[in-house]
Amino acid sequence: MVIYTEWSKALLEDRHCGALSALACQGPPTPKPPCESPTCPTIACTKKPQFFKMLPDGISTYLEYPKIHGIWGETDSRAFLFSFPNDTRNFQDSMSACCAIGLKLLSLYQSMTYDIVGSVFKQGSGDTSVFWTSGTDAGCEDYFGYCSTNRLAREESRWKENQPDNANGSENCLALEIKSGVALLQDENCDKKFRYICEGRLKNGMEIVKKECALTFNISDNEIDVMYNFSMFTPSEKCFLKCFGEGADLFVNGRLLEEKIFAQFNVLAAGDIDRLMDMYSTLNYCSNLTRGMDECDKISRMIKCGRDNSPDVVQSLISSLENSIAPAPLILPPTEAVCPTFKCVTMDYRKQAIDAVLNYSNNFKLLGDSGKVTFMCGKKFFMIYTTPELWTVPALYEKCCAYGMRLMTVETLEKFQCVSQGIITFGGPDVYFPVAASRLGAIDKPKWCYSNKPLDPVLVAYLANNTDPLNYLIMMNFYNHSTFAPIIAGHPYSNNIACLSWKYNSRYWTSGIRTDSSNTSFRWCSTDKNVSKELWAGAQPDNVNGTENCAQMVIYTEWSKALLEDRHCGALSALACQVAYLDFLRG
């Protein structure tokens, strides 16, 4: 049985009886259990496109005029928007207003947020006001939770005196009064109109989560470094581990997210059934064995159990989750270069193969990848033979991730010179290596994507003469002397550039249409250009029965190709839309 949540349907498929899967049991009806969490309003949390401007990658967007939406405050990793004093709304409309600008209505499941919001408001917005948060106990009286993050309100929630009181039995939503920098909760009728606070992350990643949790529970960097080797934890360390586990999406409301962890195990096992069963056995044992006095105690016991029984599994899981955390979505106009969003999944068999290479290898091959493995500057490098125009920018990062490696970074002049000398014999004048740096959205402020550090001024000088915003991908050439070269991402364009992002062999309508029924001439309606003959599949267009006047794109993922066929314009098919910067099927 396959559950399709987006369609609210359950359908059947036939599978080999030996395949691994979850199971569904049935029995007599059971009494409805007592509620444990509130019911949040059903709204479509979508951004309003008219508020946003797109960057040259055709993907990233940012709020074009942020100051028209409210009063902004920022920390190192978060942005907060306080609505203007005359912008008051009810609870549900406040949620929609935040969604419209790519943010979420405030959640206060972490105690440090009270201090952050109170301080930011006092510094930039005013002295006293009441704001909606995303908290509610609708449908589950006295069990408050935050709808924006699906987190329950904690015991350490900070309430105004004599709150919550559920006056008149109709106060089911949480508002926050900020007075002289002190933020306290109160319950209110959800239909009342108050100002509202939206929040969003400016930075993501394990280090950001670790820093915020350490600040909340007063844990030093030294204590964090040695914590993993200890068998006993202080109360503060237990709660730090809970905070960190929730930030990494391992736990929510004290519950282990087994479904997400099992999905990660499937990726890490890479088809090895024995390894998958070993991982699941540890997960099952630790999640059922551990009990604690509170959430902090329970979660720290689970982590200790996993570490004691399968330390390699726990380490692989943490590394996988750390790599899979996507960069925070862009909110405000960029003040520095924007790096690509990509999914970093390490495949164990690829990592093991590259780890096994202990000496220089001139001809490393694995499942279609071939290149050189070399050692220099204290690191191992795998230089893959490929053609850059056949890859999207995120795919460059993902390819390195598959081997447990990172796209090349040369943050210092010393490393730049060291790498230059080491690779000088590799490639020729036309061979360029993409590096993990970007100029997207801020041509004059390029940065390294893994560390967020700016490029050295000497390296920036190589890029100074090229100010085209399309040329945001940075590459290096090591022929004779090292040079940096900004190039247009994916240039020269190829009709195969996006094939790797398609999961299935599929057909899609394009804007191509026949211009003369007596010949094979087609034009793109979107650009009014002729369709190149090279884009057609073999024996196409064939105009069967003289009725096939529209061009359809066929994705062949096994060949990484997209080719055209002519079809009857009334045939049903999916469609492919494009943006101006990714016109990869141009004539």
Secondary structure blueprint with pairings:
Blueprint: E1 2-4, E2 9-11, E3 52-54, E4 61-63, E5 71-74, E6 78-82, H1 91-100, E7 104-105, H2 112-124, E8 128-136, E9 145-146, E10 151-152, E11 173-179, E12 182-188, E13 195-201, H3 206-217, H4 221-227, H5 235-247, E14 251-252, E15 255-256, H6 258-269, H7 273-289, H8 295-309, H9 311-324, H10 348-355, E16 361-366, E17 369-376, E18 379-384, H11 393-402, H12 413-422, E19 433-438, E20 447-448, H13 457-461, E21 473-477, E22 483-487, E23 506-514, E24 522-524, E25 529-530, E26 550-556, E27 561-567, E28 574-575
Parallel strand pairs: 8-13, 23-28
Antiparallel strand pairs: 1-2, 3-4, 5-6, 6-13, 7-13, 8-9, 8-11, 9-10, 11-12, 14-15, 16-17, 17-18, 19-20, 19-21, 21-22, 23-24, 23-26, 24-25, 26-27
Helix pairs in contact: 3-5, 5-8, 6-7, 6-9, 7-8, 8-9
